[in-house]
């Protein structure tokens, strides 16, 4: 039986390194993970196809396009869901994935510009309450 946890770990390591700006070769990754080049190529062709990847000669890297943080996270979670469904373990881990999705900051390296709203905290609390109660 295939070890999907190991596959997920490898995919997350690959994505993290790509988002940190590394260029990765199939041969080097195969050697590093102790798998065939075909396995690594399958990762790129099947599981990572929704990411903005580009081949630079014989290496893979992130294409120079900007992705919003929410889109990055959503792509990562959809990839995890896809793999877990193929493994037949999705019903067992569905709740854990949802908790992770809700509680996750970003699993990728990003820089966010966040507005300071400390002086508007009372208004934000009131606004949040109105939204939850579906009031105008």
Mind sketching the topology for me?
Elements: H1 4-19, E1 24-25, H2 26-33, H3 37-47, E2 53-56, E3 59-62, H4 69-87, H5 90-103, H6 121-132
Antiparallel strand pairs: 1-3, 2-3
Provide a descriptive summary of the structure in words.
- The protein has 136 residues and is mainly alpha-helical.
- It has a single domain (4-103), classed as Arc Repressor Mutant, subunit A.
- The protein has six helices and three strands.
- The chain has helices at residues 4-19, 26-33, 37-47, 69-87, 90-103, 121-132, and strands at 24-25, 53-56, 59-62.
- Strands 1-3-2 form a three-stranded antiparallel beta sheet.
- The longest helix has 19 residues, at 69-87.
- The radius of gyration is 19 Å and the shape is elongated.
- The relative contact order is 0.12.
Q: Quick one: overall form?
A: elongated
Approximately what portion of the residues adopt beta-strand conformation?
5-15%
The top-level CATH class is Mainly Alpha
Figure out the total of helices.
6
Instruction: Could you tell me the CATH topology label.
Output: Arc Repressor Mutant, subunit A
Largest β-sheet summary:
3 strands, antiparallel
Instruction: Classify the helix fraction into a percent range.
Output: 55-70%
CATH architecture: Orthogonal Bundle
Q: Quick gist of this model?
A:
By secondary structure, the chain is mainly alpha-helical. It has helices at residues 4-19, 26-33, 37-47, 69-87, 90-103, 121-132; strands at residues 24-25, 53-56, 59-62.
């Amino acid at each position: 039986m295939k070890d999907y946890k190991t596959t997920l770990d490898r995919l997350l390591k690959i994505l993290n390194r790509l988002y940190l700006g590394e260029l990765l070769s199939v041969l080097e990754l195969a050697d590093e993970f102790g798998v065939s080049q075909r396995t690594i190529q399958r990762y790129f062709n099947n599981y990572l196809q929704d990411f903005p990847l580009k081949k630079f000669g014989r290496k893979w890297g992130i294409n120079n396009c900007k992705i919003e943080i929410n889109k990055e996270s959503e792509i990562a979670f959809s990839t995890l869901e896809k793999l877990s469904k193929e493994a037949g373990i999705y019903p067992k881990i569905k709740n854990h994935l949802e908790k992770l999705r809700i509680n996750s900051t970003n699993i990728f390296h990003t820089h966010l510009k966040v507005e300071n709203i400390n002086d508007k905290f009372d208004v934000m609390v009131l606004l949040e309450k109105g939204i939850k109660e579906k009031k105008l």
